[in-house]
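Hey, can you fold this one?
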Amino acid sequence: MLTYVFLAYSISGEIGLRVPFTTSNVSPLWYASGIALGSVLLFGVRVWPAILAAAFVVNAASDIPVAAAAGIACGNTLSAVIGGWMLIRVRGFSRSLDRIRDVVALTLIGGLGASFIAASFGVSSLFFNGIVAHPGVAWRLWSLGDTLGVMIVTPLLLTFGTVREARPVRKLELLALVALAFVSSSLNLTSHLGRVRPDIFVYGVFPFVLWAALRFGVFGTASLTLALSILASYGTAMHLGPFAQGSVVQNITLLQAFFSITALSGMLLAAAIAHRTSLVRRHHVAVVDRRSRETIALLSSAVDQTADGVVITDREGIIQYVNTGFATITGYMPEDLVGRTPRILRSGLYDEAFYSELWGTIIRGDTFRGTLANRKKSGELFWAEQTISPIRDSESRTTHFVSVLKDVTEIRKHQERDMQLQLAREVQERFYHRAAITVAGLDIGTSACPASAAGGDYLDLFSLPDQRICIAIGDVSGHGLDSALLMSLTRAYVRSFAQFESNLSQILVRVNQMLVEDLTGNRFVTLLLVVLDSSRAALTYASAGHVPGFVLCDKGNVVSLLESSGPPLGIFDDSTFNATMIPLAAGQTLVLMTDGAPETTSLEDVQFGYAGVLNYVRGKISSRAEDISNGICSEVRQFAAGQAQSDDITVAVVKVSECEELSRTA
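Sure. Predicted structure:
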C-alpha cells in the first residue's frame, strides 16, 4: 500500500512540476495534494511515510536546495495528514461525497484549510533559501494550486468505486462525455475562428458539467474537470484560450479560479441530486415496508401538505395517489385523476417519441429528471421541474412510480428576464470599457452611467486611416437584451464601413440601409459620428437624429453646434445625411452626449436640459476632460435627488490643447 501511494504521489508530483507556469517549485495545479489527502482518507494516517518520502524525492530532484525540499515535503505531508485527520473526525462525513455538507467539508478543510499549511511551509522554505522574491504571490498560487488538486483528484479516489461497479455502457458514456467536452473545449485554443473571440466558447463547458453531475455524480464532474484543466493549462501556456489575458500571474489566477468554481459547482450539484434521490428512496422504502403505521401516517401527512406536487402510479402508469399540492398546481381534484393516466396533463408540445423515451427510462428503473411543460385543467400551460422515480419492493422489482413536480413557471419568467438584462448589461459594459483612445494634442474623457434596466447607449472611439480618429455616440430605442444586441450590431456596421469609406454621410447611409433591413416595429437608432482630422486641425461630423453636440471656446461660450443632419437610422431606406467640417482651435472643448443627461428630471419634474450640461462644463472649463465627463454624470444624478435612473447617461468630452499635434499615439 505504501509503495502504491509513493508511486502515485511521485508521478503526480512530477506532472505538477512540469505544468506550464511552474517556477521555483510553485505549481498552479498540484494534483499530488489530492493523491495525498485521498490516501489518508482511504487508508488512514499510517501512509504519511510514503507521502513524506515521495514529496522529498520529487522536490529534491528539481533545482532547489535539499533543505528547501525537506521543508516542502514536511509541509505537504502535514497538510494531508492534518486535513485527513480533521475530515475523518467531522461528524457524519461520508467519503462518497453524496451530500452538500460533505463537499463543503472537503473543500474548506481538505482544500483551503490544509493547503494553508502546505503553502506556508513551502513558500517559507523557498523564501529563506533565496528562491522566491515575492512570497505573497507564491503563497497564493501555491495554496490555490493545492486546493484545486484536492477538489479534482481526491473526489476521483473517494468515488472511484461508483464507476468501477457501473455497467459497461455507463463507462462508455463517461468516456464519450469526457471526449466530447475535451474536443468542444479545444475550440478555445484554435486560431481559425475569424473575428469570433475564443472565450465565447468557455461557456460550453457547463453543459458537460451538468451532464456529468446528473449522470455520474461527483466522480463524473471530477473526471471532466481533470481533463479540461490539463487542456486549459496547455492552452494558456501557449498563449491561447480565454485565460491568456495578461501577465503570467493573472493567467494562472484566472485558470485556477475558473476550475475551482467549475469543480465545486459540479460536486455540489451532484451531491444535491444524490442526497435528494437518497431521501426520496428512503421515504419510499418506509412506505412500501409499512413497518410502522405511525411513520406511514407522518410521511403521508408530509407528502400531502408539501407545496410540491406528488403523484404515485402503479407499474402500468395508472394514478393511485395525488397530494394536495398537485391539485393546487394543476387544478384537478384527486377524484379527477385517480384511476387515470398522467396523459391528461400533456401540453401538446412534445411528440410521442419523447414520451416513449421517458417511459422507457423509468421502466428500466432509471430516474427521469427534467423541466416539462404541462397543461392545467383550465388549459393554461405551466412549467414544472419534475422527477419520476421507480418504487421497488424488497426484491428490487419496480412496483410503482412516484413523480414529484414543482411549479417553476414564475421562476422561469424571472430567470429569463434577469438573464436577458444581465446579458444586455455585459454587452453594454464591454463596449464602454473599450471606448478609450489617446491622441497627442487632445484630452479625451468619457463617462457612462448605465440605468438599472439595460439600455442601448452606444459610445465608441477608434482609429481611421491617415491618423484620423472617429468618435461614435448613439442611442438605441428601448431597453433590454434586444437594445444591447442592436447596439452591438450598429457598432459593427459603423466600424466596418468606416474602414473603406471616408465620407461620414455615406457611412450613415450604408449603416441606415443595413438597419432598415434588420429592424422591425418602431425600433430606431440615433447616431452622431465625429472625425478628428490632424492634417486639417478640424473635425467633421454627421448626425442621424441624435441630440446635438457642442463646441465651446476657452471662455465657455458655444461657438459651434453639431446638429442633426438627417432622421434616425432604421426608419427610411432612402434617408440622406450631410457631413459638416468645423475648424478646431486650441482651448476649445467638444461635448457629446446622449439624451439621458438633458432629459433627467428633478423632483419638481424639471429637466436638467442642455443648459444644465453646458453650465456645468463652463464652471469646469479648465479641468481635465475625464473629470468633466465624470462630473456631468454626478451632477445629473444629484439633480435627480435620488430618483431611479430611467435612462443611460453617456458623455464624451474632448479638450483641444495643441491643434498641430492631433495624431494618434495609441
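The first strand starts at residue 309 and ends at 314. Let me know if you want another pass with a different chain boundary.
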